[in-house]
Write a structure and sequence with these properties.
The chain folds into two domains: 38 residues; 124 residues, Alpha-D-Glucose-1,6-Bisphosphate, Chain A, domain 4, CATH 3.30.530. The N and C termini lie far apart (77 Å). The protein is an alpha+beta fold and 168 residues long. It has three helices and seven strands; from the N terminus they run αβαβββββαβ. A hairpin with a 4-residue loop joins strand 5 and strand 6. Helix content is 42%, strand content 33%. Helix 2 packs across helix 3.
Length: 168
């Protein structure tokens, strides 16, 4: 009889450990999937009347003429069926400030002829004082967006004849 009680106790412990391991696995799965798939909405959206290639070329031409601005294409994602998106980082250096802007640029999904492009400002950072972020409520993001609109976009229009319009 003591062998049966002992084996029942071991079986209960075994199932308790399996149940705990299963719950831990499910918890970790929910945590990681939730963390990976959570994306903040863009800080600001813009529109350009032209295709992505022309927009990127205009930015490249502007950067070549202004040494205080640099850009880097950090990623390109998508396929022929659903279109492509380009992720770009623009860095502005002025008055001992280093400002970094993360953009996502893609053809307007509502128009398939490539006549309009969507630009999403997805990050704004002041590297000099480590402020900014990926949401409009993050510290100094509103001021960084205003700077992007008044400095970069206005200069881009003047120097490269590329007009990017903020959307509401």
């Amino acid at each position: 009889m003591s062998i049966k009680v002992h084996s029942k106790r071991l079986r209960n412990i075994y199932f308790a450990i399996l149940g705990l391991a299963f719950l831990t696995f499910i918890g970790l799965l929910i945590y990681f999937v939730g963390g990976i798939s959570s994306v903040y909405p863009p800080i600001q959206k813009y529109e350009y009347s032209g295709n992505v290639t022309k927009l990127v070329q205009g930015i490249k031409d502007y950067v070549l003429a202004d040494t205080s601005v640099t850009y880097e294409i950090t990623d390109a994602v998508g396929n022929n069926d659903h279109g492509y998106a380009i992720f770009m980082t623009i860095k502005l250096t002025s008055n001992s400030k280093d400002l970094l802007y993360d953009l996502k640029i893609q053809d307007d999904n509502n128009i398939n002829d490539g006549t309009k492009s969507e630009i999403a400002l997805v990050g704004a950072h002041n590297l000099s004082n480590t402020t900014g972020g990926y949401r409009i409520v993050d510290p100094e993001v509103k001021a960084l967006v205003d700077n992007f609109n008044t400095y970069f976009l206005v200069s881009l229009k003047k120097r490269a004849h590329i007009s990017v319009v903020p959307l509401n």
